[in-house]
Amino acid sequence: MTESLYPRSSADCIRPVVCGGGVLPRKKSVVKEEYERILQEAIQRLDKISQNRSAPKNIRKATTDAMEILRSEDISYGMRSSKAIAILNEIMNDINMPFPIRSEILLIVGLLEKIRD
């Protein structure tokens, strides 16, 4: 007996082309894992800034606030990232911010902008 060209179920799908161009059923979990990875990287970078004693106190406070928001699991990924971006954008034009910290915050904002709802 010949084997069918079509998968018996969506769990049999290996590639979208084989499955008629459909999306793999595990896509949401892959996206969730990617968002978690991005959030963890952003939290680590923010933690470094918040522990840096050469950073002004208001900048350390803002990074701590952004970390708390990113860690709260009762809010969706998109809301967490947009709230954290808003906090970080408020301190971006601070005159007292050292250039390496400003560059790091810009990098963190770039990471968080990848997260969508």
Describe the structure in your own words.
With 117 residues, the chain is mostly helical. The chain has a single domain, classed as Up-down Bundle (de novo design (two linked rop proteins)), CATH 1.20.1440.50. Helix 1 runs antiparallel to helix 4 and helix 2 packs antiparallel against helix 3. It starts with 26 loop residues before the first helix and ends in a 5-residue tail after the last helix. About 4% of the residues have low confidence.
Main attributes of the structure:
mainly alpha, 0% strand
CATH top level is Mainly Alpha
Order of secondary-structure elements? HHHH
Looking at the overall shape, the CATH architecture is Up-down Bundle
Helix content: 55-70%
Family: Belongs to the UPF0147 family.
Protein name: UPF0147 protein D6D85_13230
InterPro entries: Ta0600-like_sf, UPF0147
In short:
With 117 residues, the protein is mostly helical.
List the helices and strands and how they pair.
Blueprint: H1 27-51, H2 57-71, H3 77-91, H4 99-112
Helix pairs in contact: 1-2, 1-4, 2-3
Protein name: UPF0147 protein D6D85_13230
Family: Belongs to the UPF0147 family.
Organism: Candidatus Methanodesulfokora washburnensis
